[in-house]
């Protein structure tokens, strides 16, 4: 058996944490032969609830789970982690603006970025907590020891939502949908790019001839799906968010198969799509060897796609401006 992979998770007593831990511990992330250890971080008042989750983890008797640390100290949770998944933060509540959320959650990521920098030199980091692109930007700015290509913010739930909508409309299994890009911010300005997506190997725009549905219904349905789930469930997406986080880590950890790609926000260097450098922006990504990745180049983008891509970049620039006092040197 190989050495355990250490996964550190913040907000571990929250609803996404609860939906994620048992899957990781059972082998649902790295497979049935790969042991894992967990480093779980919570705020002090939530340690009691986290202890209950620990009791349940113990009662599952997972043979692959080789150790758990549960703590309110970031450096203890993150020590020597291979992956750090930053989930902890306030979810957006009814009546809370995006700007309120940015200011409420941003400060968490200065300290957590510093802790990763200090104790997790080989870590790769996935930020789930919203606003995830900008929280990731903040954490990364405080962790100069970790190369820029180790930082990710989650748009995979949007990708999965988009695939499910296209599959339902086309009347096919969701596994038939590939090359689904979410461009930009995990927000209403994201661009779910149906024009470059495939259904059963054919352009989605050929399989779904109803182009007004694609342009006018599909895009807002994907972008506003989180709100629709809150309305129906009375709580924000949890199991689907946990699932998307696991998909994101898996896609980064194994080479991309065939000609497909996946969506995740990575640091932009301005190439190849002219997105301003330094932003954490979601692109079509291929993993090369389970460590390195590249942005899929040369996708055709018409004027409408281009203006959506630019609008999401502008929103991210505004978010960066709003947190500039929280950014590291
Ligand atoms: P919960 O409120 O259920 O759990 C959050 C947990 O984080 C709580 O247990 C809380 O004690 C803990 N926490 C707060 N501050 C912390 C800190 N400084 N260090 C460690 N832990 C801390 O929220 P949940 O539904 O699990 O959502 C978590 C985050 O995911 C939210 O920010 C939410 O907005 C975000 N989401 C992101 C999604 C995405 O696609 N990127 C989709 C789902 C979700 O909305």
Q: Your description of this structure?
A:
Its EC number is 1.1.1.37. Catalyzes the reversible oxidation of malate to oxaloacetate. It catalyses: (S)-malate + NAD(+) = oxaloacetate + NADH + H(+). The protein has 329 residues and is α/β, with parallel strands linked by helices. The protein has two domains: 149 residues, 3-Layer(aba) Sandwich (Rossmann fold); 167 residues, Lactate dehydrogenase/glycoside hydrolase, family 4, C-terminal (L-2-Hydroxyisocaproate Dehydrogenase, Chain A, domain 2). The protein contains eleven helices and 14 strands. It has a six-stranded parallel β-sheet with strand order 3-2-1-4-5-6. The chain has a three-stranded antiparallel β-sheet with strand order 7-10-11. A three-stranded antiparallel β-sheet has the order 12-13-14. Strand 10 and strand 11 form a beta hairpin. Helix 6 packs antiparallel against helix 8. The radius of gyration is 19 Å and the shape is globular. The relative contact order is 0.13. The model has no long low-confidence stretch (mean pLDDT 96). Ligand NAX binds next to helix 1.
